[in-house]
Write a structure and sequence with these properties.
381 residues; alpha/beta; seven-stranded parallel β-sheet
Length: 381
């Protein structure tokens, strides 16, 4: 707890290699939320010209570790901890976790070290067909990390369950906190005009898939399901995203005879205008942590169908109560749910209410509670 009720809690978010993925975006949103409710926040990265960093408010201090290799950041991190001694250091990627816990062993200050696993780790290894020996070694590595941390924040109960299964850590050491997915700019961007003829009111219903074109998202199952739906109802399918499965998907689309009713749109700067305008969003994943795009679609009131993959969709949809869940890798079942939902769209208000906890402020307050920190009644500027 805080030594004084007048000292602002100080949290450091540590994520060196910064790309354009969901982990990076959520870490930025965690920093935004913590700063919003009055915490002092540092954000350590390797490069400051990176996606999402422009969303950080001026109050968040961005610290650059200019290093060529990951391991070269260790002395810099130790120096940072010695100089600033934050209450909490939060990391969210395995290489960062390893570095943080090495620094922990050499730091004698008050800082406590928390890890934030963002995906279903065991399910990912299983879905990827990881070799048993490599899987065993990976599980040992992960178990060591979780047991040596001061605390773990999981993005869903499913992720928490897998962390406890592979590490046998005490349940009191892990907290489930919903991702800060829903932001003010989500709604602002959703209202922006978009030059896309397929979104016009007089066009066939648009089905949307969003995500990297990679194994995890299992877009081949979505294409096969769409082919079945298209036999009974005029409609179109568009995928937003990039990845190494593009060629495979184009070939499959040709084999299925999807013709001009299917399109790979690539990277789109503002997917939310598409998401709001689509008649149906489909998540066909084999594994997730907490699926941000499903949460965003529901927040915008867009009808959704999802696979019941580990983990996240079950919790986001309240066990399938507010949006259909179907088995993974089953095009027939997916097509049935898609067709049913296109013919009878879901209640937008129920969808929005189901994800009402996935906001910046609610998530930030959850993190502070997990950290055992409080915001003082009066904060000195």
């Amino acid at each position: 707890m805080l030594e004084s009720n007048q000292r602002r809690p100080h949290v450091c978010l540590f994520i060196l290699k910064f790309g354009d993925g969901g982990v990076e975006r959520m870490m930025v949103n965690i920093a935004r939320g913590l700063s919003l409710i009055g915490a002092r926040v540092d954000f350590i990265v390797k490069e400051t010209e990176a996606p999402y960093l422009h969303l950080l408010p001026p109050e968040v201090r961005i610290i650059r570790f200019q290093v060529a290799k990951q391991k070269a950041a260790l002395p810099k991190l130790i120096d940072y901890l010695k100089r600033y001694d934050p209450d909490i250091l939060l990391s969210a990627k395995i290489l960062d976790d390893q570095l943080a816990l090495k620094a922990k062993r050499r730091h004698s200050g008050r800082t406590r070290f928390f890890l934030r696993p963002g995906t279903a780790l065991l399910s990912r290894m299983q879905a990827r067909g990881t070799h048993p020996l490599r899987r065993w070694l990976k599980q040992r590595q992960l178990s060591s990390l979780f047991n040596n941390a001061d605390g773990v924040v999981a993005v869903s109960q499913g992720v928490a369950d897998e962390v406890m299964e592979l590490s046998a850590i005490d349940g009191d050491k892990i907290t489930v906190i919903r991702n800060p997915t829903i932001t003010p700019e989500l709604y602002q961007q959703a209202e922006e005009p978009v030059d896309e003829p397929w979104l016009a009111a007089d066009q066939p219903p648009l089905i949307l898939g969003i995500g990297g074109l990679r194994r995890q998202k299992d877009f081949p199952t979505l294409l096969r399901a769409f082919a079945l739906v298209r036999q009974q109802l005029p409609c179109r399918l568009m995928l937003l995203g990039q990845g190494n499965k593009e060629g495979q998907l184009l070939k499959l689309a040709q084999e299925l005879g999807l013709g001009d009713d299917f399109r790979l749109a690539g990277f789109v700067a503002n997917p939310y205008a598409y998401l709001k305008g689509a008649k149906l969003f489909v998540l066909s994943s084999l594994w997730e942590g907490s699926p941000n795009v499903l949460t965003e679609a529901m927040a915008l009131g867009t009808s959704c169908v999802s696979t019941d993959c580990p983990s996240g969709p079950h919790e986001v949809t309240r066990g399938g109560e507010v949006a259909p869940l179907v088995p993974m890798g089953d095009p027939e079942r997916l097509a049935e749910a898609m067709l049913r939902t296109l013919r009878k769209p879901l209640d937008p208000q129920r969808l929005k209410e189901a994800v009402s906890d996935y906001t910046l402020e609610k998530s930030a307050r959850g993190y502070l509670a997990a950290f055992g920190l409080v915001i003082p009644q009066t904060i000195d500027a």
